[in-house]
Amino acid sequence: MSTSPPTMYGNPEAFAKKYPHTWEVEEFAKGKYPPGPSWTPGHLDPDWRPPTTMSSKTTPTYAQAAVPPAKGKKGRQAKGPVSASSVAVASGEVFTKPTPPLSQAVRRFFASRTTFKPHPEAVKITAHFLDIAASVLREANCSLPLSFTCTVNDKGSVSLLGTDLHTPASTYTLYFAPLTSRLNKAFPIGNSPWVIFKPAPNETQLLIHSIPLAFLPTDDDQLFPSLHESIRNARGVSIPSAHYLNPDTESR
């Protein structure tokens, strides 16, 4: 156990002048504090921290913004922890929810041949049309992403899939014609050329079974309005069309 006196920090005489009616002042008057010269300046205290001030012209730190507000005139104080959003507002930062990536169907566009049959240079097209497409877009001063993947199916259709997850195929509509023209020039195929590119279909066909006929309209033209409202109310999905699989009302 150490017998040396503890180190004293601060200036008791200055404290006494500022707070004349405190217990410390009485002790100082009784000589129970050492003389002023033996005191170490307060800023040399290892536990001392400079005061933090917040100005309207400065941005508060996270720690400053997270400090619970002081009690008001009625002694009320905010309850519960401070949320990250409130801290962001206090610090002037704005957080936005990231946009979800688009599906491949929305990012794909394709060109089919006038005659559905395999193309003899399908492998070559897959390897080289990516650079050709990027060149066409660059020559047109296109500001959209130029990166794609290319596939050729067994019917000769050429598909381009944008690798950027947030750029839909519809944004390339202005470039469908020059892309198709360059495709036909680079890989000529006689009397079965490619027709102009178009976005890939991204709709899904649904088959609904076992609905009692009593619940369905007798007029075929009223089937879509009836199912559209019912499906939207039940599932929150808006359908674009509806029809009976069996068009004969007698055998249905």
Write a short abstract of this structure.
This protein is an alpha+beta fold. The chain folds into 3 domains: 33 residues, no CATH class; 96 residues, Alpha-Beta Plaits; 48 residues, no CATH class. The protein is built from 8 helices and 4 strands, in the order H-H-H-H-H-E-H-E-E-H-E-H.
Keywords:
alpha+beta, single chain, 252 residues, 29% helix, Alpha-Beta Plaits, disordered N terminus, four-stranded antiparallel β-sheet, 8 helices, 3 domains
The CATH topology of the largest domain is given as Alpha-Beta Plaits
Taking the alpha carbons of the first and last residues, their distance comes to 101 Å
Uncertain runs? 1-6
**CATH architecture type of the largest domain:** 2-Layer Sandwich
Strand line-up across the major sheet: 2-3-1-4
Top-tier CATH class of the largest domain: Alpha Beta
Mean pLDDT: 78
SS summary, helix count:
8
Helix and strand content put the structural class at: alpha+beta
